[in-house]
TrEMBL record:
Main location: membrane
Lipid bilayer topology: Single-pass type II membrane protein
UniProt subcellular location: Membrane
GO terms for MF: glycosyltransferase activity
Name assigned to this protein: Glycosyltransferase
Superkingdom per UniProt: Eukaryota
CC terms in the record's Gene Ontology section: membrane
Endpoints of the signal sequence: 1-31
This protein's UniProt keywords: Glycoprotein, Glycosyltransferase, Membrane, Signal, Transferase
Coiled-coil stretches noted in the UniProt entry, renumbered to this chain: none
Amino acid sequence: MMSAPRHRAHFKKPTWVFLFIFLVSLFLVCAYVYPPRNTAACYVFSSASCKALTDWLPPAPARDLTDEEVASRVVIRDILNTPPAISKPPKIAFMFLIPGALPFEKLWDKFFQGHEDRFSVYVHASKEKPVHTSRFFLDREIRSEKVVWGGISMIDAERRLLANALKDPDNQHFVLLSDSCVPLHDFDYVHNYLIYTNVSYIDKFRDPGPHGSGRYSERMLPEVEKKDFHKGAQWFTMKRQHALIITADSLYYTLFRDFCKPGMEGNKNCYPDEHYLPTFFHMLNPLGIANWSVTHVDWSEGKWHPKSYKAADVSMELVKNITSLTENVHVTSDERKEIQIRPCLWNGEKRPCYLFARKFLPETLDKMVLLFSNYTTYT
Ligand SMILES: *[C@@H]1O[C@H](CO)[C@@H](O)[C@H](O)[C@H]1NC(C)=O
Ligand SMILES: *[C@@H]1O[C@H](CO)[C@@H](O)[C@H](O)[C@H]1NC(C)=O
Ligand SMILES: *[C@@H]1O[C@H](CO)[C@@H](O)[C@H](O)[C@H]1NC(C)=O
Ligand SMILES: *[C@@H]1O[C@H](CO)[C@@H](O)[C@H](O)[C@H]1NC(C)=O
């Protein structure tokens, strides 16, 4: 009689151990076969143990790609593996995305002067046809459409510029510029920097905050996962192959058109011009981009808009300060406000980051024209 309970207890303990081991194994197998799509599953545990768990698990089997993804990727891979025929001399396409007037035409005229066979100009004037003062801009307008700030029409205009510029087979590198952009170096320096680089200067960083991943919509699944969603300034320069794949892409473009827009899901504002290119290149050719933009802008005032330079701000010292920067800075929008600082590497060597700068008010024109020969000689 006395031994019965003891015997039962003796039997019960290993059963519990086996049961426990069985349940843990079952959980691990499930976690492996059905990896959590988002971090919600991690709330079951503390985030630290969840991270430890996912580190310990072997990488999850790759999901099946959709038909569209298979097709897109094969086209993109082929374009990337086909080196472009190098024309002589290779040209740079300067693509101006502007509402109407181009206040810095006189400055660009000085910049282009004497280099006629090594560049081409394209103008997308979305509001009114500009009156030109420089011969380099005459009859360079492409068919344009209205551009709504923060909307997909911005990407449409960029793609329209790329497609038109691709028509000239001599164009090897493509630069997007706004009406407030100015050149920081002379033409030879810029041409050399862009033609002999092995990457596109597309800005990209990971921002876990509300103005970064916070704008992601799960309706982009399965093609775009939250971990792929990146942010960056829209002012790019890109190699011909990259211009081609952006022109060819309809899959990712469509997802951003439909699921990244201002006023989405509960007032979430997503701006495709800040996310489409960084996310696209992060997913499809992360080693092919520099992760910073060669167009400088000053966010240091910490306001909603970057600093606009007035005539009184413009001096040789300002230009020297900007052209001497050799590190790029990104700040996240979460509470930590993490500052990410990286060196600017040109074919592996440290070099100044910036070729252009923006948010120069029209009133700075005369001063910039006066300074141009000086700073292109002495910087
Ligand atoms: C850009 O960032 C990716 C990682 O996100 C990295 O693999 C790549 O090397 C970076 N590009 C350069 C030129 O440093
Ligand atoms: C240039 O940089 C120096 C050193 O950071 C700074 O003290 C100065 O105010 C800057 N000048 C202009 C015009 O930005
Ligand atoms: C670009 O050149 C650097 C230095 O030679 C090299 O480390 C890097 O892998 C190259 N990137 C590409 C995309 O070819
Ligand atoms: C340009 O440089 C020359 C020679 O250094 C100098 O004499 C002149 O004052 C400079 N002009 C301006 C506008 O800074």
